[in-house]
């Protein structure tokens, strides 16, 4: 298998180098540049391209296909950025990454605690030597009801780790896991919205979940609810989120991902004019924590992202069962 990887970060290089050393019969090259129409030719002569959450236009898929690329790997768990319908039409197959669920689960719980205890506000104020108490009183997570939507690997890990805090945990999920029942109650969405002080999202980004959190959902939540999104931006309707923050219905939000983030993150834009009104508006609220889609980013996940996608690509060639393969449904 000949693999050409784009958008390779410094921290991923050693894992690609290790793969290259351990697979002398295969061929793998990488660059740090994101794929664009201007650099697609770099992948000529390869069987597969590996990307991250990059924008890939129809024209780009078509050109790669003409050049002989038959497989696409995305070094991310989510693959909503891939046009699977077009890939199916072309006959291209894809794989996605799997990595330690602890990465996102740990970050999610950190965000919950930060939001409960107003940590960003406290730190901002401490920087200007305002050590006063007004406006900084927190909520105890241990006394809260936490609602988890989606109990796949990450949601389930959040539930297990959260159980150590002693909070009441509600879960809404397609599958009721016997194991999780020792830590949490499985409930319908309405109950979760009505009874949760903190709501955390752990569902995939697909058409079914687009705007799961809209104005009606927010209206049925408890006043002062804390919303956490480390899943996918499209799960929350940004307009509804902003309206909920403006009205005071939402007490705090921690947003690692939002629907208009495509093309914005993982670059140093400190000298740039950023045209992104959603982020600009969200950034004005003192009760909003905005992290740049970093919940995944640990040494372990970086290693897993490269390893599991490259192994997934190799499985296409060997005919082994390919657990990393992406389905074509949206
Ligand atoms: C994923 O793996 O799905 C993520 O959200 C991280 C990715 C944006 C690099």
Helix and strand arrangement:
Blueprint: E1 2-5, H1 10-22, E2 27-30, E3 48-51, H2 58-67, E4 71-74, H3 84-90, E5 93-96, H4 102-116, H5 119-127, E6 145-149, H6 153-162, E7 168-172, E8 185-186, H7 189-195, E9 198-201, H8 215-219, E10 225-229, H9 238-247, E11 250-255, H10 277-282, E12 288-290, H11 299-318
Parallel strand pairs: 1-2, 1-3, 3-4, 4-5, 6-7, 6-9, 7-8, 9-10, 10-11, 11-12
SS content category: alpha/beta
- The H/E string reads EHEEHEHEHHEHEEHEHEHEHEH
Q: Tell me the fraction of residues in β-strands, as a range.
A: 15-25%
What is the helix fraction of residues, given as a range? 25-40%
Low-confidence stretches: none
Strand neighbour order, sheet with most strands: 8-7-6-9-10-11-12
Question: What this model shows, in words?
Answer:
The chain is an alpha/beta fold. The chain contains eleven helices and twelve strands. The protein has helices at residues 10-22, 58-67, 84-90, 102-116, 119-127, 153-162, 189-195, 215-219, 238-247, 277-282, 299-318, and strands spanning 2-5, 27-30, 48-51, 71-74, 93-96, 145-149, 168-172, 185-186, 198-201, 225-229, 250-255, 288-290. The strands form two sheets. Strands 8-7-6-9-10-11-12 form a seven-stranded parallel sheet, with helices on both faces. A five-stranded parallel sheet has the order 2-1-3-4-5, with helices on both faces. Helix 1 links the parallel strand 1 (2-5) and strand 2. Residues 52-53, 76-78, 293, 296 line the site of 2-OXO-4-methylpentanoic acid.
